[in-house]
Amino acid sequence: MGVPFTSTLGYAGTDILERRPDDFKIIENPFDSQERTVVAKAMNPDVAIFHGLKGDRLGNVLVQKHGEELLLAQASRRVIVTVEEIVNSVDFEDSDGWFIPAIHVSAVVHAPLGAHPTGVPGLYDADEDRINEYVKASGTDESFGKYLNRYVFEVGSHQQYLELVGLRPELEAVAR
Amino acid sequence: MTTGFDLTIEEHLAILMSREVNDWETSACGALSFIPATAMLLGREMRAPNAEIIILGSRDYSPFVTGKDFHFHAQRGQLDLFFISAIEIDQHGNFNLHVIGDRDEPDVLMPGQYGTGMLYYAVPRIVMFRTEHTRRSFVDQVNYVSGAGTSPDGVSRRTREVKVITPMAKLNFNQESRIMELGSVHEGFSVDQVVENTGFNLGIQGEIDTTPQITEEEVHTLRTVVKSHMIDSETYPNEAANLIREP
Amino acid sequence: MREKLVSVEQAAQIVKDGDHIVFNGSMDWTPMAMLRELARREIRGITALGVVGGAMNLDFLLGAGVADQVETCSLGFGEYARVAPNYERLQKQGRMRMLDNT
Question: pTM of the full predicted structure?
Answer without folding.
Answer: 0.92
